[in-house]
Structure formats: structure tokens, C-alpha cells
Amino acid sequence: MTETIVHLVRHGEVDNPGGVLYGRMPGFHLSALGRQMAQRTAAYLEGRDITHLVSSPLERAQETIEPLAEALKQPVRLDDRVIEAANDFEGLTVGKHPKQLLNPRFWSKLTNPLKPSWGEPYAEIAQRMDLATRDAKDAAEDHEAVIVSHQLPVWIARLHFENKRMWHDPRRRQCTLASVTSIVFAGDRIVRVEYAEPARDLLPSATEAAGSAMGSAR
């Protein structure tokens, strides 16, 4: 049976000197290094049989897919289902200054890391990413599709497709900046998951590449 592949790409580095957990906030764009990462990932994917391009509506995702869209001369469809996870700490700098979480007003948000209690439930992220991935698979049947999303949605999608538990240590996510997590289908059945880091040598540091403890800082 012919395979169809959906590549889930994490966006490149964002210009965020203040260390804000920006989540879904508008106005956060790729840094100069992030644009290099986007070019590197585009070069990695350019020679593949890609017929369908999708992006999160956030600026950093659209800027990451732009070099690939230009190289392939293909349009990009924006899909709200692959947007960053909602996070109650959006706009704060808890990744850079974790002592903020000692404020009693945040304690109710820290009661259940398994759900998690501070943001969009993992199960809901998995559901929307599953639907978006399968729609992209149908659109690119017998070919390949690319979805540019964000670290937590991509990682939760991978756990979901591999039938693994959703709660996890954020520091151990295998989803670095501009990485490619490829979901390989035979018909409607997932046969394997592949992973690549085309911009590995451009990663600023292992700590930054791993992302924030709450899942939305990058």
C-alpha cells in the first residue's frame, strides 16, 4: 500500500529577549537565527513529494513555512487546530523567573500536572491535532503534507499517535526548534513515526531547544 506522510514541523527560534511565555499572543516573530532555521528545514523538505502545506495562524509558524512554500510554489492553508496550546501563564516570564509561581494567586493552577491544570488539557490538544493531521493526510493522499505548529501540540500529537501517556516531563520532549516529526500512514493506519532535526547545529543551547516547563514559551 502506498504511504502518505504528514510532517509536523516545529517553528524556528523566536525573537523574545524578555523571555515572555507568549503562547498565542500576536506580534512574536522569528529571530534572525529562526529564519536560518526555517531555511534549513525548507531545504531538508524541498526535495520530497509534498503537495499540501498547512500552518498555525501565529506569525512564527507562518514565517517558518514561508521558505518552503516559496520553494515549492504552493499555497499555505492556515488551520486554527494546530495553534499553540492555551496557557494561563501567557504573558508572564515564569520560565525565566519561576519564583513568580510562589504567588498564591497561581497555586490553583498548579494542582494537576497530569491534565495540566494551568492550560489546555492534553486530551483536547491531541484531539485537534489528530483531526488536523488526518485531514492533511487525506488532502495529500499518496504524497506528503507539511504542518508547521508548535512544540507542545507536536509533542502531544506524537504521544497520541504512538499510543503513549500524555503527561510527561517537558524537559524531555524530543521536539527541538525547526524539527520535523513525520507521521507515516498506510491507508488510514499509522505505521511509524520518524524524527529529524535539520537545524540541529543552529540550536542556541540544549536548554532553549527543550522549551519551557509550561510548554508554551517558544
Automatic annotation (TrEMBL):
GO terms for molecular function: phosphatase activity. GO terms for cellular component: cytoplasm. Coiled coil: none annotated. It comes from the Bacteria. InterPro entries: His_Pase_superF_clade-1, His_PPase_superfam, PGM_Phosphatase. Signal peptide: none annotated. It holds the Pfam family His_Phos_1. This is Histidine phosphatase family protein. It comes from Flexivirga caeni.
